[in-house]
Design a protein that fits this description.
With 351 residues, the protein is of the alpha+beta class. The protein contains six helices and nine strands. Strand 8 and strand 9 form a beta hairpin. Helix 2 packs across helix 4. 20% of the residues are buried.
C-alpha cells in the first residue's frame, strides 16, 4: 500500500472514531445517511424510542424516505445558492461588458463626428480654389464695368443717348455681383461645422447650392444637368451643412462616373408622403459592379481609381442621413448608370 493510501486510511479511521464518539455522546441508536450526487449531504442521528421498542422495517422505510427528501432539499438549496452566485457574477460581467460597449459606441460616435467634419472641410477646401476663380470672373467684370461707367458719367454734362447703355452695364454688374454673393453664401452654408444646428431646409435650394459649389468641376465638361424639382416640396427639418455635404458627395460621384465627363445627370425632388420627401440623382455613367453594391456604404471602400476618392463619401452620407431619420438607396447597372435616392422625413426624429 502506498504512503498516500496509508495516510488516507488513517484519516478515514480518525473520522470514523470521531463520528462514533459523537454519536455515543448523543446516545444515537440509529444513523440514517443523506445521500447526494457527490457523496453524503449529511447524517440523521436518532436516539432510542421512548417506548423502548426496537426500530422495525416500517420505521426504517419512513426514515429513509425522510432522509432522501432532506438530502434532495439540501442539494436543491446548494444548487440554488450556486445559481444565485452564478447570476450575481454574470450580472457583474454583463454590467462590465455593457459599460465597455457604451464606451466603444461613444468612441465610434466621436470618430464619426470627426470624420464628417474632416471630410466636409476637405471637400470645401478642394472646392475653394476653383470657387475663388469662379468668383474672380464676375467680380472683375462687374468692377470693370462699374468703374468705366463711373468714369464716363463723371465726364458727362448730359448725354441722354448713352443712358440706356450705361443702365444695361450697371444692371449686368448688379447681376454678376449677386451671383458672386450667392456663391459665397453657398460656401458659408455648406462649410458650417456645427452638428446640432437644426433648421427648415429647402432641399431644392440645397441641390442648387451643391451644383453651384461644384460648378467649376463640370462647367467645361460635355455634361447635361437636368433639374426636375417639385416646386411645392415641403421643407426638411435638419442640418443644412450636413445635407449639403451629402448632395455634394452624391453629385460629385455622378460626375466622376461619366465617361470622359460626357453624359446626363438628372436631379429630381419629390414628395413621397405628407411627412417624407425624396431627392434622386440619376446618371448615365459607367455604373457600379453588382458585387460591389453591398459594400458601397462601408468606410474606405471605393471603386474609383487611386487618388480619386477616400472611400468615405457614401459612408459619411449614409451616417448623416441615418441621423436625420432617413434612408439612402443605390441602384446601379454596370455600363448604364446609377440612381442614388435619399429619403428624408420632414420632421427630424431624435437620433
Amino acid at each position: 500500500m502506498s504512503r498516500t493510501a496509508v495516510e488516507r486510511l488513517r484519516v478515514d479511521e480518525a473520522d470514523r472514531e470521531a463520528i462514533t464518539r459523537l454519536f455515543n455522546h448523543l446516545g444515537a441508536a440509529l444513523v440514517i445517511p443523506l445521500p447526494a450526487r457527490e457523496g453524503l449531504a449529511g447524517l440523521i442521528a436518532i436516539g432510542q424510542k421512548k417506548s423502548g421498542d426496537l426500530f422495525v422495517d416500517e420505521d426504517l422505510e419512513l426514515l429513509t424516505t425522510m432522509a432522501n427528501q432532506a438530502a434532495t432539499a439540501i442539494e436543491n438549496a446548494r444548487s440554488y445558492e450556486a445559481m444565485e452566485a452564478l447570476n450575481r457574477d454574470l450580472e457583474r460581467k454583463v454590467e462590465k461588458r455593457t459599460a465597455a460597449l457604451r464606451e466603444v459606441l461613444a468612441e465610434r460616435e466621436r470618430t464619426q463626428q470627426q470624420l464628417i467634419r474632416s471630410e466636409s472641410l476637405a471637400a470645401i477646401g478642394e472646392l475653394v480654389a476653383g470657387t475663388a476663380h469662379e468668383l474672380n470672373n464676375p467680380i472683375a467684370a462687374a468692377m470693370s464695368l462699374v468703374e468705366t461707367s463711373v468714369e464716363t458719367i463723371a465726364g458727362w454734362e448730359m448725354q441722354a443717348d448713352k443712358r440706356d447703355e450705361i443702365l444695361d452695364d450697371l444692371r449686368f454688374s448688379i447681376g454678376e455681383l449677386r451671383r458672386s454673393a450667392a456663391i459665397i453664401r453657398s460656401l458659408l452654408d455648406l462649410s458650417r461645422q456645427t452638428q446640432t444646428y437644426v433648421e427648415a431646409v429647402d432641399m431644392n435650394r440645397a441641390v442648387d447650392d451643391a451644383l453651384r459649389v461644384l460648378h467649376n468641376q463640370y462647367k467645361n465638361l460635355p455634361v447635361e444637368i437636368v433639374k426636375a424639382y417639385d416646386d411645392a416640396l415641403p421643407t426638411v427639418e435638419g442640418n443644412f451643412a450636413n445635407l449639403g455635404q451629402v448632395l455634394i458627395n452624391i453629385i460629385r460621384n455622378a460626375l466622376q462616373a461619366l465617361p470622359e465627363g460626357k453624359g446626363r445627370i438628372t436631379l429630381t425632388t419629390r414628395r413621397l408622403s405628407a411627412a417624407m420627401v425624396a431627392v434622386e440623382c440619376r446618371d448615365t455613367g459607367i455604373g457600379i459592379p453588382a458585387a460591389s453594391l453591398k459594400d458601397i456604404f462601408k468606410p474606405f471602400f471605393t471603386t474609383k481609381a487611386v487618388g480619386r476618392g477616400t472611400g468615405l463619401g457614401l459612408y459619411l452620407s449614409h451616417e448623416i442621413i441615418r441621423r436625420h431619420g432617413g434612408q439612402i438607396h443605390v441602384e446601379s447597372t454596370e455600363g448604364k448608370g446609377t440612381v442614388v435616392t435619399v429619403e428624408l422625413p420632414c420632421k427630424r426624429g431624435e437620433g
